[in-house]
Design a protein that fits this description.
With 277 residues, the chain is an alpha/beta fold. The chain is 38% helix and 17% strand. The chain contains ten helices and ten strands. The strands form two sheets. It has an eight-stranded parallel beta sheet with strand order 3-4-5-6-7-8-9-10. α5 links the parallel β7 and β8. The longest helix has 13 residues.
């Protein structure tokens, strides 16, 4: 069973497998095991330096190409017209998939005008190197600008999102536009396992705090999540969330954890983040 969310007429898997920090044989083996465990979305990036390993894992799994959703991201150094197109050609070649399903701009750039970068990204789509395009780590205003400048729909904004961060402005902006939000670091780099609320809800359902968290994401409209694990058992568990449902009260208790508003990813090149009112 594959949970999906639909945007601009496109069905997107609601749970994907993230590959950040996975390298070489580990990346290859984990991607193959993830696909065997039922994941139908694989997420990587040029900056992860593992696209070739991810591609090998995809090949090992021997799933028909049309049954798998593959996302990668263009790094900031490749945002100029000409550079972006060449970098995407390299990414698709490394992945060995003929095309990507989704190409994202990994971060907003302070150096290259967004209209130039989006023009190049749209060209990549028109050439058939990707089916869809989107952004990552964009603020509400940057997302709005991207939507105005792009010929093709901006299918998602991939951002840090877990129970301990308040992403209300980003979620509301995406819903208003009709686009999706993709959650990276959904398990707060393991911090969900320390939450009494998540542990208690998990015990009530016979599930782990990670499974409860991922189920919480799937019950939010327009939200996709891409948990990562190098453990075969954990990656299997993270996609084993289809046989239970969180009540409205449980959903509310988890959502209330956002009062912590703890950001884990905030590099020097990050934009000025939106703050919740």
């Amino acid at each position: 069973m594959t949970l999906t969310t639909k945007h601009f007429g496109v069905e997107i898997p609601a749970i994907g497998f993230g590959t950040w920090k996975l390298k070489k044989e580990t990346a290859q083996e984990c991607v193959a095991k993830a696909i065997e465990s039922g994941y139908r979305m694989i997420d990587t990036a040029q900056a992860y330096e593992n696209e070739k390993d991810v591609g090998r894992g995809i090949k090992d799994a021997q799933l028909p190409r049309e049954d798998l959703w593959v996302t990668t991201k263009v790094w900031l150094s490749e945002f100029k017209d000409g550079d972006l197109q060449k970098s995407v050609e390299k990414s698709v070649s490394k992945l060995g998939t003929d095309y990507a399903d989704l190409i994202l701009l990994h971060w907003p750039s302070k150096d290259v005008p967004l209209d130039e970068t989006l023009g190049a990204l749209n060209e990549v789509r028109e050439k058939g190197l990707t089916k869809h395009i989107g952004v990552s780590n964009f603020t509400v205003d940057q997302l709005g600008e991207a939507v105005k400048l792009s010929k093709a729909p901006i299918l998602t904004n991939q951002v840090e999102y877990h129970p301990f961060i308040d992403q209300t402005p980003v979620l509301e902006a995406a819903h208003a536009i009709g686009t999706s939000v993709t959650s990276y670091s959904p398990l707060a780099q393991g911090q969900v396992f320390d939450s009494d609320v998540l542990k208690e809800i998990g015990e009530a359902h016979g599930k782990t705090p990670a499974q409860v968290t991922i189920r919480w994401f799937t019950q939010q409209p327009g939200v996709i999540t891409i948990p990562r694990s190098s453990s075969p058992e954990h990656l299997r568990q993270n996609n084993d969330v289809h046989d239970f449902e969180l009540s409205a009260d449980e959903m509310g208790r988890i959502t209330a954890l956002k009062a912590n508003n703890k950001r884990l990813i905030d590099p020097s090149w990050a934009p000025e983040w939106d703050s919740a009112a």
